[in-house]
Amino acid sequence: GYLGFPQARWYSLPCAASITAWGRQYINNVIKRAELAGLKVLYGDSLHYDRRIFVKDRNENITLVKIGEFVDNHLKSSIKGYETLSFKDNKLVFSPIEKVIRHKYNGKLLEIITKHGKTVLTPQHSVYTILDNKLKLVDANLLKKDDKLVSLTNPEVSVKFKENHIFDVLTFDFKEYSNLIRVYEDNLIFKQGVRGKCPYCAKNYILCTHVSSKHKDRKLPISKGLQSNFEWIGGDNSSIGKIPRYWKLDKELAWILGFYCAEGSISEGKKYVVSFGNQNLKYIKRLKYYFEKVLHSEFKIIKNFDKRNQKFIYYFRIQRIPLIPLFKYGFCLGRGSENKTVPWFIYNSEDSIKKEFIKGYLAGDGTKKKDKRYKTHFINFATKSRDLAIGIHFLLKSINHEKNFFNKKIEHVYWKYRNDKPKIAQLRLQGVKSSK
């Protein structure tokens, strides 16, 4: 480390690299001897700060995080109870994280490119390859062109969220919106200046003013609302709008969340709006039906003509402020095409929920293309969000796809980057080519 430090008195990068290589060899020799002695070896490696990894927290929730941010958050706190993916007994499983370390690296990096994607890592980083017909860990700098890399698939994920699971969204962190949110015992809205019988005291008043001043107990802050049986979430005035406190994780919600990742957006400014847009009117009507039922309100569909594509586009918009933090922070869907993510609870939901989420996403961003090499179509989609691409890649690898046209099990997910737009990731799903 000292020899590789540019300001060192005896700076020598070749010597630093040589020491690192010899050190790795000694480590590997010790590992082999330990395994021969029947000892269990705990092994770690270095990754780039922005490298994404899947972590299971103490509550069994799976999230996609940047390893650098995860390390920064836990350098001074206990790491006990956190797990990440590892290869054990020929299976991809979540195993306990024993320790996290952060250090600088000033050497060269390697970019490994395959048919199915690329990755950047240090020359000393360990990768899985096949040697002597056995799965082996080797240093990345020992790889040569045409060497085989092993793509680990079928991660073992325990089911935590079953179909029809109920979320109490008051338990979510709404961040900067938390002070704005109030919990209501009902969904009643009183328009400005309208006189009538008060539903709480049965007396005639200008309802908006009367209810706001005399019946303050019908709304509570989040801290007190958690202990109540109030079932609606709003704000201090009716213009904020209300949404249900309890949301059911069924196939329809999973589809809508997937569709949002493809075609949804959030506006925060003069107006707070969750928007969806698509050329397929059937999908927009499906959204309208769901939200009218859940929010107990009527909505309109907006129809616009896109001169560029010479086609009509249909829009569905909901102006309810509490829906913004629910989608953005509670469900962790993100906003903007480059910041969309798979909701944290989808990763360890039942396959039926995962599949419906993927169907919703593909309805917006997916296409079916025909490759001359294959007899059937394959799924293809593109996204500007790296986190979303990695998340859907993980989902596709973790669910059972059954069999393809040739009666072979679908067990491979093809990954590549577009040459014309390198920031956009593409994925496709296909069956194995051979019977092996």
Terminal CA distance: 45 Å
The name CATH uses for the topology of the largest domain is Endonuclease I-creI
Biggest sheet overview: 4 strands, antiparallel
Q: How many β-strand runs?
A: 24
CATH superfamily of the largest domain: Homing endonucleases
Mean pLDDT: 82
The shape is elongated
> How would you write the strand order of the largest sheet?
2-1-3-4
Q: Which CATH top level class of the largest domain fits?
A: Alpha Beta
Give the quaternary arrangement of the chains: single chain
Strand content: 25-35%
Q: Domains counted in the coordinates: how many?
A: 3
For the CA atoms, what is the radius of gyration?
A: 27 Å
- Helix proportion range: 10-25%
- CATH architecture classification of the largest domain: Roll
Helical/strand content category: alpha+beta
Low-confidence stretches: 429-436
Helix run count: 9
